[in-house]
């Protein structure tokens, strides 16, 4: 992977700068979603998966994981609302 | 770039987007910059995944005085964690889609 020099970057025209800004914005929001998934998996795996004797998820585990995400988000929304009301 | 190729394969939407962006890029420097950013992100995601799986599977598979390894458990735990990741990802994304369709966000 070759590395770009500062002079390479300085030579970018406005259209390319704009293109990169848009690209970064998109990557940024995708990355936020990715990091949330990492966080939820970390939390919910601990709560929902007891035995690791089998590489497959049982249907209960699968249901638990998906409920876990939804309850986490419900909690998050409730907390945001609660904080807004106390203001 | 071993790690990013592993993770790049696991994130098809990201890869597809990156290649369409790369195709429309007029400037080769802009294209290179975008490729580098995508690479770095893929590495960061792979690192995060490896760390989280190590943490969780160490906890699940190695109890008491760690005298022996438990490779079978770790392999199963790894597979299970990846499947959990996919289930969570599906649940989260469908929640986001529902919320944006109903105008909540």
What attributes does this structure have?
heterodimer, A: 87 residues, mainly alpha, Helix Hairpins, 0% strand, flat, B: 105 residues
Q: What's the name of the CATH homologous superfamily of chain A?
A: Mitochondrial import inner membrane translocase subunit tim13 like domains
Q: So, CATH architecture of chain A?
A: Orthogonal Bundle
Question: Average pLDDT of chain A, to the nearest integer?
Answer: 91
Structural class label of chain A: mainly alpha
Termini gap of chain B: 37 Å
State Rg of chain B: 18 Å
CATH homologous superfamily of chain B - what is it? Mitochondrial import inner membrane translocase subunit tim13 like domains
Give the helix proportion of chain B (percent range). over 70%
Spans of at least 5 consecutive residues with low confidence of chain A: none
Helicity range of chain A:
over 70%
Tell me the CATH topology of chain A: Helix Hairpins
Strand content of chain B: under 5%
The CATH class of chain B turns out to be Mainly Alpha
How many domains make up the coordinates of chain A? 1
Q: Count of helical segments of chain B?
A: 4
Largest β-sheet summary of chain A: none
Task: Please identify, by name, the CATH architecture of chain B.
Answer: Orthogonal Bundle
Biggest chain pair interface = A-B, 47 and 48 residues
Report on this structure.
The complex is a heterodimer of chains A (about 90) and B (about 100). With about 90 residues, chain A is an all-alpha fold. Chain A has one domain (about 15-85): Mitochondrial import inner membrane translocase subunit tim13 like domains (Helix Hairpins, Orthogonal Bundle). Chain A has three helices and no strands. The relative contact order of chain A is 0.07. Chain B has one domain (about 30-100): Orthogonal Bundle (Helix Hairpins). Helix content of chain B is about 85%, strand content about 0%. Chain B contains four helices and no strands. Chain B has helices at about 1-10, 10-25, 30-60, 70-100. Chain B is mainly α and about 100 residues long. In chain B, helix 1 crosses helix 3 (about 30-60), helix 2 packs antiparallel against helix 3 (about 30-60) and helix 3 (about 30-60) crosses helix 4 (about 70-100). At the A-B interface, helix 2 and helix 3 of A face helix 2, helix 3 and helix 4 of B. Chain B: It is a peripheral membrane protein. Chain B: Pfam families: zf-Tim10_DDP. Chain B: This is Mitochondrial import inner membrane translocase subunit. Chain B: One of its GO terms (molecular function) is metal ion binding. Chain B: It is found in: Mitochondrion inner membrane; Mitochondrion intermembrane space. Chain A: Its main location: mitochondrion.
